[in-house]
Amino acid sequence: MIITQEQVLAALRNVEDPDLKKDLVTLNMIKDLKIEENQVNFTLELTTPACPMKDMLKNACVNAIKHFVSQEAEIGIDISSRVTKPMDSSQLNAIRNIILVSSGKGGVGKSTVASNLAVALGAGGAKVGLIDADIYGPSVPTMFGLVDAKPGAKETEGGKTLILPIEKYGIKLLSLGFFADPDQPVPWRGPMASNAVKQLFNDADWGELDYLIVDLPPGTGDIHITITQGFPIAGAVIVTTPQQVALADTRKGLAMFKMPAINIPVLGVIENMAYFTPEELPDNKYYIFGRDGGKELAKSFDVPFLGEIPLVQSITEGGDSGVPVAMESAGTLAASFAAIAGKVAQQVAINNAQRAGNLSSVD
C-alpha cells in the first residue's frame, strides 16, 4: 500500500489538542511531514516545551495513522515547541510571555514558588528569566546563591547602557537585591520604587525568552499597578497557604487582577505549605494550616487549581543554600514543581489562543 500525505493529514485531523479544542492539522502543529514507502516521519510542534500532554498527543498521532491509514506504517515523531505569545505584546518583543507570581499576603512562600517555577520551566526546555520585583524584601539573590553577585552592563550601538542579567541554572535573573546593600533598608516612596522596577524590564538585555517570571511584592500596591498597566502580561499565578488569615488577603490580591482597569488572566492558584510531611514518614500528612483553602479559593473565582506544595524541610534548605529543589533530577518535590510548571504553561497557551481567536471557550 502506498501511503500519501493526504491520507496521513486526514488521519491526524482526528487528533484534537484537548486544551485548544481543535485538531493538530488545523492548528498547524504538524511540521516537516515526509513519507517513504511505509515510513512516516514528522515533527509535532507543541505550544510549550513544558506541555504535560506531549506523550499523550504523540501516542494519539501514532494510533490515528495506524487506524485510519495502515497498520503497517512505521512512524517516527519528533517533538518540538514554539511558545505562543499574547496578541498585544508589541512591547518587549523578544519576551514571549510575562507571568506574574503574586499573593495578597507576605510569608506564604511566593518567592520560593516563583524561583522553583522558573527553574522547572527551564528544566522543561524553555528559555526563562526571573525578575525579583519585591523591592523591600528581595529574596532571589539568596535563593540562587548570589548574595554578593553584581550584574554587568553593555552599551548598545545607539549608546544606551543595558544591564546584563545574571544567569544561573539556565535562568536569567535580576533583582534590586543585586544593587543594594543586603543589610540596608530601602526607604523608597512609590514612584521611586516603581521606576526602579521599570528599569529591570526596559533597561536590561534579556534576549529571547519564552517566559519571564515576575516575583511581585505582597499586597496590591504601586508596583503591581505599574507592571500590570505598563507591560503586556500573559497571566498571573496566585500563591497562598490554606490558612484562613492568608486566604483573606490572597482573595483581595486575586480580585485585583480581575478588576476592569487591570484585567489580567489568572492562570491559577498554587497552595503552598499545604501539609507537613516528616522526612522519616513520607506517607504521613499533617494539615497544620488547615486543608483545601487554595482549592476552595480557586473554585470560588472559577480559576484553575495548579497544585499543592507540602511543607518539607528540604524546600527551606534549598532556598537557604541557593539550590532550588526543582533542580533535583528526581524526587517528589521536583516532580510536583514540574507538574505545576506544565499546568502554568498550559494555561498560558490556552489564554493566548483565546486572545488570538483560535479558541472561543474552554470547557
Characterization of the model:
The protein is of the alpha/beta class and 363 residues long. It has 10 helices and 15 strands. The protein has helices spanning 5-12, 54-68, 110-123, 140-143, 190-202, 222-230, 244-257, 293-301, 313-321, 332-356, and strands spanning 16-17, 22-23, 30-36, 39-46, 74-81, 95-102, 128-132, 152-155, 161-164, 166-168, 171-175, 209-215, 235-240, 266-276, 305-311. The strands form 4 sheets. Strands 10-11-7-12-6-13-14-15 form an 8-stranded mixed sheet, with helices on both faces. The chain has a 3-stranded mixed sheet with strand order 3-4-5, covered by helices on one side. A two-stranded antiparallel ribbon has the order 1-2. α1 crosses α2 and α5 (190-202) runs parallel beside α6 (222-230). The radius of gyration is 22 Å and the shape is globular. The mean pLDDT is 90.
How would you sum up this structure in a few lines?
With about 375 residues, the protein is α/β, with parallel strands linked by helices.
Sheet-strand content, in percent, reads: 15-25%
Number of helices: 10
Tell me the series of helices and strands, N- to C-terminal: HEEEEHEEHEHEEEEHEHEHEHEHH
Share of residues in helices: 25-40%
The secondary structure category is: alpha/beta
Query: How would you characterize the largest beta sheet?
Result: 8 strands, mixed
Tell me the distance between the termini: 40 Å
Low-confidence region ranges: none
Number of strands: 15
Strand order of the largest sheet: 10-11-7-12-6-13-14-15
What Rg, in angstroms, do the CA atoms define?
Answer: 22 Å
Mean pLDDT: 90
| Rough outline | globular
